[in-house]
Specification:
single chain
């Protein structure tokens, strides 16, 4: 718990038995200013792993849920459905590429008024090899497109992010694959939510990435992100109108 806010963590995982226990353990070891646990609950979604990811995560102290349909977005959505009570949701990858202790700064910004805080690897320090040239290029291109279409600068589509539970509900997240992160950021812009970026450091991941680790994965991710940006722009008026009406009468 952070300043009376209950914190839940969502971790999508596919064949991450070599890293997920460290990520879960590091999160559960974090303390707040009163030396009480900072993180209240960790939910790992096993996205069709063929290794011991689920067992390792459970032994480390996480709740494990299962989703056989492949896709980063559907794994996140499945884990979100398992949340019972919380004020802030933290998203982090299972590959130990994030410095999880830096989530405290995210929570501080949210408690101080932000709706969503994105951990920007571009603004932080990255170990050599932590970010591939394709990742750097894709982030840069996405940032250019979003700034051109919505006049809102972003530096990263990184997976390390925190968001108010109430704000997450307003976004009505839908993407089941590679467009998940950009969908969250652009919809927040469309709805006028308070979005902030903070610098976070990135480490060389444990194991091979399913996205940036292969040419096919990188190409598919790029197509997914660009097509998501196009769909969000095309459907913007309808989305904003529907969401505003929904929450005005809720």
């Amino acid at each position: 718990m952070y300043r009376d806010n209950i914190i839940n963590v969502v971790i999508p995982a596919l064949n991450e038995e070599g890293a997920v226990d460290k990520v879960v353990s590091d999160l559960k070891a974090l303390k707040n200013e009163n030396e009480a646990p900072l993180i209240d609950h960790v939910i790992v979604c096993d996205n069709g792993s063929t290794d011991a990811t689920a067992d390792v995560a459970e032994k480390a102290g996480a709740e494990v849920v299962y989703q056989s349909q492949a896709g980063y977005g559907i794994a996140c959505l499945t884990a979100i459905d398992a949340i019972k009570s919380c004020d802030i949701v933290l998203f982090v990858d299972a590959d130990d590429s994030c410095v999880v202790s830096q989530c405290k700064a995210m929570f501080e910004h949210i408690v101080d008024g932000a709706d969503i805080v994105i951990g920007s690897r571009t603004l932080g320090k990255a170990e050599k090899g932590a970010l591939t040239p394709l990742q750097v290029f894709g982030n840069g291109l996405s940032g250019v497109l979003i700034k051109a279409l919505w006049q809102h600068p972003i530096t990263d589509l990184g997976p390390f992010r925190a968001i108010k539970r109430t704000a997450l509900a307003k976004l009505d997240m839908q993407d089941k694959s590679f467009g998940w992160t950009v969908e969250m950021q652009v919809k927040a812009i469309q709805l006028g939510l308070i979005t902030q970026e903070i610098a976070v450091d990135s480490k060389v991941r444990i194991g091979q990435s399913k996205i940036s680790g292969t040419l096919k994965g990188s190409v598919n991710a790029g197509i997914g992100i660009i097509s998501m940006i196009a769909r969000l722009r095309f459907n913007q008026r309808k989305f904003v109108k529907v969401q505003q009406a929904k929450f005005e009468h809720s």
